[in-house]
Design brief:
The complex is a heterodimer of chains A (232) and B (65). Helix content of chain A is 77%, strand content 0%. Chain A has 232 residues and is an all-alpha fold. In chain A, helix 2 packs across helix 6, helix 3 runs antiparallel to helix 7 and helix 4 runs antiparallel to helix 6. The radius of gyration of chain A is 21 Å and the shape is globular. Chain A starts with 5 loop residues before the first helix and ends with a helix. Chain B is mainly α and 65 residues long. Chain B starts with 5 loop residues before the first helix and ends in a 10-residue tail after the last helix. The chains are: A mainly alpha (232), B mainly alpha (65). The interface between A and B is medium-sized, with 38 and 29 residues.
Chain lengths: 232, 65
């Protein structure tokens, strides 16, 4: 039932995640400014990067769907958005925990990075009612793809706009100068991003396999019913 | 704000990592349940086709594996 390569991918994801956790807690030094609380950074930021990357990837898959008419690309795009929303939920919760620990507030409304991520998250929450309000499968796939492309294009635009904003309460990780992370922290951060990416791809393939198999089963069931009706 | 002491910071860090792990575990559990349901339905279909094949003259049972 499982797609080719899923098992080694899952093993790689688990091993890399365990390695990332080990690096976070036993290798990366404590932050001089924030202390132990800064460890949240290693789960919060990779989740945010992979979630935003997933939204952009979903947009690219949606372009493929509109260009080829192959509905499997729509399914891939849908699953990528679904997983990115789950990670996005994690980003908002872990971000609020980190904000409370380091700023004393669960949420800061005048910080562009936080608010812009919330806007992107809420934008993608609209995807579900849009998709499931359309009954015709072809129209559903087409409209969902158009949404995924428009919203996917909004993500990098939003990211750039936030970069140009002046408020700097929220730390900047990715910068033109390479950021200010020392060697051990940088290595740990990169391993965390790799682990999160592998986890995303593994779960994406897993859900895709489950959805495809479910659809095949439905087709098989209806064919058997038709055959039984014809025979009886 | 000054850095929190380890015992206080530990609660926040544990909370954040628990949220991450809980999301992954819940997600995998939901997909796992879905796959188990699919496997059950496949078995039901196989049983139906086996019964159907057995009722036909000279019918054979479908081999699995």
């Amino acid at each position: 039932m499982f797609s080719k390569g899923l098992r080694p991918l899952a093993v790689a994801a688990v091993v890399t995640t365990l390695a990332a956790f080990a690096l976070v807690f036993f290798y990366a030094p404590l932050d001089a400014d924030q202390g132990f609380v800064q460890k949240i950074f290693y789960v919060h930021v990779p989740m945010a990067i992979v979630a935003l990357g997933g939204f952009v990837a979903a947009g690219i898959m949606a372009i493929k769907h509109l260009r080829t008419g192959d509905s499997s690309w729509d399914l891939r795009s849908y699953v990528a958005i679904h997983l990115s929303i789950i990670l996005g939920t994690g980003v908002l919760i872990t971000g609020a925990i980190w904000a409370k620990a380091s700023w004393g507030h669960w949420w800061v409304w005048d910080e562009p990075v936080l608010v812009s991520f919330l806007i992107v998250f809420l934008l993608y929450c609209v995807y579900y009612p849009l998709r499931f309000s359309i009954e015709d499968p072809e129209r559903q796939a087409r409209y969902s793809s158009v949404f995924a492309i428009a919203a996917g294009a909004f993500v990098p635009i939003n990211f750039t706009a936030v970069r140009l904003a002046e408020a700097v309460t929220h730390p900047r990780v990715l910068s033109q100068t390479g950021g200010s992370l020392p060697g051990e922290m940088r290595l740990t951060f990169l391993v965390c991003i790799l682990a999160m990416t592998l986890l995303f791809v593994t779960l994406w393939k897993l859900e895709l396999t489950a959805k495809r198999t479910s659809a095949q089963l439905k087709r098989l069931r209806s064919r058997l019913e038709l055959r039984a009706q014809a025979a009886g | 704000m000054p850095a929190l002491p380890l015992d206080e910071a530990g609660k926040y860090v544990a909370g954040a990592y628990t949220v991450f792990l809980a999301l992954i575990v819940i997600y995998v559990a939901i997909i796992g349940a879905k796959i188990a349901r699919i496997e059950r339905q496949v078995s039901e279909l196989l049983e139906l086709t086996d019964e159907d094949a057995a009722e036909r003259p000279g019918g054979e049972r479908a081999s699995v594996g």
